[in-house]
């Protein structure tokens, strides 16, 4: 049971049913209230019409006992100012909700008659019917039939019998019957409609979620098989489910590429580490057997190469893990001057052209690493010298490192930034590089929200340009 109601289909069907039920109850109550109000208003109008017809007769001089109420099939009462019933419709057996419960009339007194002055003047002019009508609810029994009524109360002044009040009723049977019929229809129709709404919502939701289930099943298969080459089915629609499928496939493709790069990285790193380790071991074994043959400078050189390679691999691992570069303010001009002043043993001289100061936000050590890798790369390929430039162009600091070598072919300018990639002609002059320097430089530049590109230098060699957002001159 919990599993059934834990599904999206069940929750959607239940939610839709509840919303429709609330809407139906509210709409049904409004309809019943409007229907009852309308029919009650019609009953009031009918009762008012009957009461005013009798009141008009009294106002024109008709005596209460001379009223023709035999044709009235509704309860009618005429009450004088003393509260006595002076006229009533025929066959009236019981009444409530009016001024009196009496059903048998008594003779009306003439105007001016009283217990103290039995000889009063009974001559009056025409009576006056009140413009206002009071309404009340009650019940009555007429000729054995009991029913609920709406009573209209109309007052007639200045009649020959003093002030008279007319009560006339109109039955509420039509209103009650209509309301009862509507209520019965709602009680029968609403549950059926709710069942239909719930069922249709269940079916539509199941149909809409069928692609989601297919995506889930395929993802479960990918997890079980660890085959990132698989892809989830993409519906031919243009809705959210189709976008989810496309995004899922894009994520799988990115994961597949990442895993493949990781595998290549591990394989290349193992290959690159094997050479210096093997060389160092060989030299140490020879030195252990024949101390006079130990090549100490060669061992030191292999150790340094191994140390640099390990440092490169560690930095790449940190970059791949998403290490943030920091937000320190770095003066690129000062960094260039300081880093280049500490370089010794370069094969070619390095000239610096820095116009002003360019301040950027990031990690000083990582940016220094980028500069060092670019200069090292330029030293390996330059013929006579290396030139480092720094300028600010349109709010961006541009650090350039150029050599006068052979340059980089246009079709190789993106591949050289891949890890463990070295061009064939570079391998012949490589002084121990593993093909990680430019890859590290590109990754660091991207982590600083910058760019690292290569193009032809003015002297014909390669010009590497690092672009970073500059804070100010």
Distance between the amino and carboxyl termini: 69 Å
If helices are DSSP runs of H or I spanning 4 or more residues, what is the number of helices?
A: 9
What is the CA-atom radius of gyration, in angstroms? 52 Å
User: What profile does the largest beta sheet have?
Assistant: 7 strands, antiparallel
Q: Given the C-alpha coordinates, what overall shape results?
A: rod-shaped
SS-based class: alpha+beta
Give the DSSP E fraction (strand runs of 2 or more residues): 15-25%
Helix and strand succession? HHEEEEEEEHHHEHEEHEEHHEE
What is the number of independent domains?
3
Spans with pLDDT under 50 lasting ≥5 residues? 116-123, 425-432
- In terms of quaternary structure, the protein is single chain
Mean pLDDT: 83
Query: In total, how many beta strands?
Result: 14
Helix content: 40-55%
Task: Please give the structural blueprint.
Elements: H1 2-5, H2 8-59, E1 76-80, E2 85-88, E3 92-96, E4 128-129, E5 134-142, E6 145-159, E7 162-171, H3 173-225, H4 240-289, H5 296-320, E8 328-331, H6 332-341, E9 350-354, E10 359-362, H7 364-381, E11 386-393, E12 396-403, H8 424-429, H9 437-447, E13 451-456, E14 462-469
Parallel strand pairs: 9-11
Antiparallel strand pairs: 1-2, 1-7, 3-5, 4-6, 5-6, 6-7, 8-10, 11-12, 12-14, 13-14
Fill in the keyword field for this structure.
473 residues, alpha+beta, Helix Hairpins, Heat Shock Protein 90, 3 domains, 7-stranded antiparallel beta sheet, 5-stranded mixed beta sheet, 9 helices, 48% helix, rod-shaped
Task: Provide an overview of this structure.
The chain is an alpha+beta fold and 473 residues long. The protein has 3 domains: 14-178; 240-316, Helix Hairpins; 325-469, Heat Shock Protein 90 (2-Layer Sandwich). The chain contains 9 helices and 14 strands. Strands 1, 2, 3, 4, 5, 6 and 7 form a 7-stranded antiparallel beta sheet that branches. A 5-stranded mixed beta sheet has the order 9-11-12-14-13. Helix 6 (332-341) packs across helix 7 and helix 7 packs antiparallel against helix 9 (437-447). Residues 116-123 and 425-432 have low confidence and may be disordered.
């Amino acid at each position: 049971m919990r599993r059934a109601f834990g599904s999206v289909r069940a929750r959607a069907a239940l939610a839709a049913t509840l919303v429709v039920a609330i809407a139906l109850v509210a709409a049904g109550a409004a309809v019943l209230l409007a229907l009852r109000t309308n029919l009650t208003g019609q009953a009031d109008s009918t009762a008012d019409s009957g009461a005013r017809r009798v009141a008009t007769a009294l106002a024109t001089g008709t005596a209460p006992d001379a009223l023709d109420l035999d044709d009235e099939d509704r309860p009618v009462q005429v009450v004088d100012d003393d509260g006595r019933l002076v006229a009533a419709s025929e066959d009236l057996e019981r009444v409530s909700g009016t001024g009196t419960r009496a059903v048998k009339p008594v003779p009306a007194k003439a105007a001016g008659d009283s217990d103290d002055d039995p000889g009063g003047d009974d001559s009056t002019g025409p009576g006056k019917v009140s413009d206002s009508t009071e309404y009340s609810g009650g019940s009555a029994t007429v000729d054995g039939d009991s029913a609920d009524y709406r009573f209209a109360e109309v007052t007639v002044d200045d009649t020959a019998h003093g002030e008279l009040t007319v009560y006339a009723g109109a039955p509420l049977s039509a209103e009650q019957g209509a309301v009862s019929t509507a209520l019965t229809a709602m009680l029968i129709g609403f549950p059926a409609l709710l069942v239909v709404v719930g069922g249709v919502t269940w079916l539509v939701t199941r149909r809409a979620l069928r692609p989601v289930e297919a995506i889930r099943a395929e993802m479960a298969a990918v997890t079980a098989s660890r085959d990132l080459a698989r892809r989830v089915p993409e519906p031919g629609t243009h809705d959210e489910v189709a976008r989810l499928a496309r995004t899922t496939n894009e994520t799988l493709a990115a994961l597949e590429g990442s895993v493949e790069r990781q595998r290549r990285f591990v394989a290349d790193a193992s290959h690159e580490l094997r050479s210096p380790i093997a060389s160092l071991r060989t030299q140490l074994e020879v030195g252990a057997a024949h101390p006079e043959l130990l090549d100490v400078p060669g061992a030191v050189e292999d150790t340094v190469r191994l140390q640099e390679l390990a440092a490169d691999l560690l930095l790449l691992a940190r970059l791949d893990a998403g290490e943030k570069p920091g937000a320190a303010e770095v003066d690129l001009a000062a960094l260039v001057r300081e880093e280049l002043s500490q370089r010794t043993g370069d094969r070619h001289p390095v000239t610096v052209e820095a116009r002003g100061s360019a301040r950027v936000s990031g990690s000083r050590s990582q940016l220094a690493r980028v500069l060092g890798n670019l200069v090292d790369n330029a030293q390996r390929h330059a013929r006579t010298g290396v030139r480092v430039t720094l300028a600010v162009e349109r709010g961006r600091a541009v650090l350039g490192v150029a050599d006068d070598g052979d340059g980089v072919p246009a079709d190789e300018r993106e591949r050289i930034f891949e890890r463990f990639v070295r061009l064939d002609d570079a391998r012949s002059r490589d002084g121990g590089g593993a093909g990680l320097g430019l890859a590290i430089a590109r990754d660091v530049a991207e982590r600083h929200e910058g760019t690292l590109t290569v193009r032809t230098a003015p002297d014909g060699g390669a010009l590497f340009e690092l672009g970073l957002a500059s804070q100010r001159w």
